[in-house]
Amino acid sequence: MKAYFAAHRYGNATGADLWAALGEASNLDVGAIMNSWLEQPGYPVVDAKVVDGQLTLSQHQFFVGDGVDQDRKWQIPLNGNYAATPQIMKDARVVLGDYADLRQQAGEPFRLNVGNESHFIVNYDDTLRADLLTTSADLDAISQLQLLQDLRLLADGRQVSYADLVPLLKDFAESPATVVNAALYRIAGTLTQFVTPESTEEAQLRKLYDQLSAKQVARLGWTPRAGESNDDQLTRPYVLSAALYAKNPAAIEAAHQLFTDNQADLGALPADIRAMVLANEVKHYGSTELFEALLNAYRQTPDASFKSAIRAALTSTPDAALIKRVIEPLKTPIPSSHKTCVVGTGAC
Predict the structure, then answer these.
(1) What is the pLDDT of residues 132-156, one digit of tens each?
(2) Distance (Å, rounded) from C-alpha 78 to C-alpha 97?
């Protein structure tokens, strides 16, 4: 960067000038690398497969939904952990060598994008993924996040099945890292879109949620503990929400007890669990009196966070008559005197 600034001080420069300076310092053709990323749309998937015993890499464009492959190629910094992995993948396909020999030499499963610093998705085949998952507990949080994130994107792009992800979730369920739990429960949350409410399949999904969250709920509990980490504080809502979705009896009772203990001042409930506690109460212990009390609290409190928690709770009621109470006001036309109009457009 010093050479770049010195060469172009008091003058104009282009992107190509910057790439040239970076290339000279790194002994890489940075211009060609950058042009492959900046002059075409999208970003790539790198497929890592064992083909006839050979560790093989190939690249193609990632799509969610319909897309037409234009045979685009990127110059991809692979950041692989095997010595045979090229620094930059320029071609559509690269063969690294006999996988068994490479695996023995390295003494660890094959990985790409170590550190999650490059902008591409890795799609390991069944052999490589199974090998990698044997060491999942030893991976750092960013590497675990990367695995889950890549698998979710591949499932969104229909390159793998969400059904294939289900057995893998348990390998990450005890992570103390918020980033891992956020990725895990994002996948788990997507699974709810594949089941019909109150069906056998939903019952099975609830069991999965219970299995994923049980040890973390036991470890963290419902309320903050002295000296706990930020990760613990941020992970707690994920696992408690999962336990409640699972209809875990102990979780339902614990939330009810918190409601009872704080009934005189519900706004004093910890903000990160307040919505869950209120929704649990409305779902499992609800009544017209509770509904009216929460509605009254909503009207009176100036606390936006508390209002949001009450909204979530009221709309969680299973009572058809109370649901109607929530919906009816939405059908009432807004008086013209209460409308906000954009001056000069006629739009209100």
Answers:
(1) 999 988 999 999 999 999 999 999 9
(2) 16
pTM equals 0.84
d(CA 156, CA 64) in angstroms, rounded, equals 6
pLDDT tens digits, one per residue of 81-105: 999 999 999 999 999 999 999 999 9
Per-residue tokens: 293: 């009390």
Could you give the C-alpha distances from 188 to 102, 130, 181, in angstroms and in order? 35, 20, 10
CA angle 213-218-223, nearest 5°?
100
Q: Which residue reads 């696992």 in tokens?
A: 239
- Window from 95-109, 178-192, 284-298 with minimum mean pLDDT: 284-298
Q: In what order do the strands lie in the sheet with 121-124?
A: 93-98, 54-61, 44-51, 121-124
In the chain, which residues fall in CATH 2.60.40?
Answer: 42-114
- Strands, E assignment, the chain: 44-51, 54-61, 76-77, 88-89, 93-98, 121-124
Rounded to the nearest angstrom, the gap between the alpha carbon of residue 232 and the centroid of all alpha carbons in its chain is: 17
Residues 6+ apart with CB under 8 A from 123: 45, 46, 47, 48, 150, 154, 159, 160
- The DSSP-derived string for 146-215 is HHHHHHHHHHHTTSS-HHHHGGGGGGGTT---HHHHHHHHHHHHHHGGGS-TTSHHHHHHHHHHHHHHHH
- Position 344 pLDDT exceeds 70: no
Tell me how far apart the alpha carbons of residues 180 and 169 are, in angstroms, rounded to a whole number. 10
d(CA 187, CA 171): 14
∠ CA 57-61-65, rounded to 5°: 130
Q: Which CATH number is 42-114 given?
A: 2.60.40
